Amino acid sequence: MIRIQTMNFSVTTLFIFVFSLSSKAFNPAIYQLNYFETQGNAISVRSLTRTQLPHIEIPAHLVQINAAHSRMKTDLLEQLFFEKEGVAYIRWIINPEDKKYYHQVVRYLKEQGYSADLHYHFEGFQSASRSYFAEVPKTPVRFSTKTSTDSTGGSWQDKRLSVAEANDARLFADYVHEQNQIQPFKNFSIQDEPLAFMIPSLNQGMIVRLFGGFEKNDNKKIYLPGFAALHESVGREIALRNGSSDPFEFWNEHYIQPVGRALGEMAGRLGTQYD
């Protein structure tokens, strides 16, 4: 996800419910983002309900690992990697909506002589698409995860996360990080994806994305997906609550123009464009 540097919208009152949740749960900014992702998307309304995120314990030697260790949080690594009977394992998270791809992982593990039981260490919320906002209950660990699924939001009903896609995500994350270290970006920032797991024989990957600024949010910033700004009711409501009687002009100034500056800087600095 790209975050565009723009004004801080005063819409916290729209989501007063988040403050009644446990202080050990997600940062309110993440709950707000979850609301926008699932309820402010004209293509598909998704669930706001917390759900368990099943995972399979896979011996680490059966998985390719692509990681930027210096950018990984130690407490997160301790939840994704563990040791059992002297063998290193990783927790491969399954998309709760998937009815196809995880069966391939189960079959593969059984063929290798390992258990493929489902475990429930993580909980999370849906996003607009196949990514899930994830946490380990009763710990400060929060992250976003993406794996293959044959069912998700909107019209995209079969989304394998391939090995190539996982490696590309890691390559791009490292490239963006290096360029930002050379000269910080002025008009955008990108959530880091410092870790990917891959099972080459199944052509499946799992990407771990950090929340970054979300965790340090001071409740003065709202993180808004671009499609929510254009949503008939959500976009209009935000414009009205910020004193504008003309949603088109409001979002022309606070969305279209900032996005143009961000895309221009991205093309000039990185030689890439966002699709």
Summarize the structure.
The protein has 275 residues and is α+β, with helices and mostly antiparallel strands. The chain contains 7 helices and 11 strands. Helices cover 31% and strands 21% of the residues.
Element layout with pairings:
Layout: E1 2-4, H1 28-39, E2 51-59, E3 64-67, H2 74-80, E4 81-84, E5 87-93, H3 101-111, E6 118-126, E7 132-135, E8 142-146, H4 163-182, E9 188-190, E10 195-199, E11 204-209, H5 226-229, H6 234-241, H7 247-270
Antiparallel strand pairs: 1-9, 2-5, 2-6, 3-10, 4-5, 6-7, 7-8, 8-11, 10-11
Explain what this protein looks like in three dimensions.
This protein starts with a strand and ends in a 5-residue tail after the last helix. The strands form two sheets. It has a nine-stranded antiparallel beta sheet. Strands 1-9 form a two-stranded antiparallel ribbon. The chain has helices at residues 28-39, 74-80, 101-111, 163-182, 226-229, 234-241, 247-270; strands at residues 2-4, 51-59, 64-67, 81-84, 87-93, 118-126, 132-135, 142-146, 188-190, 195-199, 204-209. Mean pLDDT is 87; it is low at 4-24. With 275 residues, the chain is an alpha+beta fold. The chain has one domain.
